[in-house]
């Protein structure tokens, strides 16, 4: 039994030692690289411009709606009960429509952001993979999730690969 335990211990040490030597780990500041990429900066500018355009349009519609409400409030006393109810229902419908437009604009902005960000992330991930393969790194971890970092930090290598 002792012989079997000793053989098992030797095999385990050889296996674990070979595994540890074959696996190297590096870390990277992913967000730093992503923020430094010109594509990310262009994306932010494009999204800001689109959001401003949509926001301006929504503000105009909101102002128009507010004017309608004020006009209704000023003349509501001259309307019959049926006319007031009809006008209030119309204003309520317009208000709900305006809220729906705001929600749709927010969803469109998020969709545009995702569509624009996906190719940027792919480019960054491809660069990380290329640097990792060239330097024989089996694992690359993001610095933001590390408690302790003792291995190589390859942010500069990936930035170089991306031409940053």
Task: Walk me through the structure.
This protein is mainly α and 164 residues long. It has a single domain (24-162), classed as Protein Binding, DinI Protein, Chain A (2-Layer Sandwich), CATH 3.30.910.20. The protein is 78% helix and 5% strand. It is built from five helices and two strands; from the N terminus they run αβαααβα. It has a two-stranded parallel ribbon with strand order 1-2. The longest helix is centred in the middle third of the chain and has 54 residues, at 81-134. The protein is rod-shaped, with a radius of gyration of 30 Å. Mean pLDDT is 86; it is low at 1-20.
* Large-scale geometry: rod-shaped
Strand order of the largest sheet: 1-2
CATH A-level architecture: 2-Layer Sandwich
Broad structural category: mainly alpha
Q: What amount of the residues lies in strands?
A: under 5%
CATH class: Alpha Beta
Give the low-pLDDT segments. 1-20
What does the largest sheet look like?
2 strands, parallel
CATH superfamily: Skp domain
Strand count: 2
Number of helices: 5
N-C termini distance: 60 Å
Order of helices and strands: HEHHHEH
Please bin the fraction of helical residues: over 70%
CATH-defined topology: Protein Binding, DinI Protein, Chain A
pLDDT averaged over residues = 86
């Amino acid at each position: 039994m002792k012989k079997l335990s000793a053989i098992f211990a030797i095999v385990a040490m050889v296996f674990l030692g070979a595994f540890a030597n074959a696996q190297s780990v590096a870390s990277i500041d992913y967000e730093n690289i992503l923020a430094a990429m010109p594509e990310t900066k262009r994306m932010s500018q494009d999204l800001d411009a689109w959001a401003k355009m949509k926001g301006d349009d929504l503000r105009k519609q909101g102002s128009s709606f507010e004017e309608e409400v004020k006009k209704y409030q000023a003349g509501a006393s001259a309307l019959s009960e049926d006319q007031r109810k009809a006008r209030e229902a119309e204003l309520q419908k317009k208000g709900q429509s305006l809220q729906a437009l705001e929600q749709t604009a927010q969803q469109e902005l998020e969709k545009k952001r995702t569509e624009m960000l996906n190719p940027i992330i792919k480019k960054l991930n491809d660069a990380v993979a290329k640097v990792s393969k060239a330097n024989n790194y089996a694992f690359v971890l993001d610095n933001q999730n590390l408690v302790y970092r003792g291995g190589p930090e390859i942010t500069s290598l990936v930035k170089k690969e991306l031409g940053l």
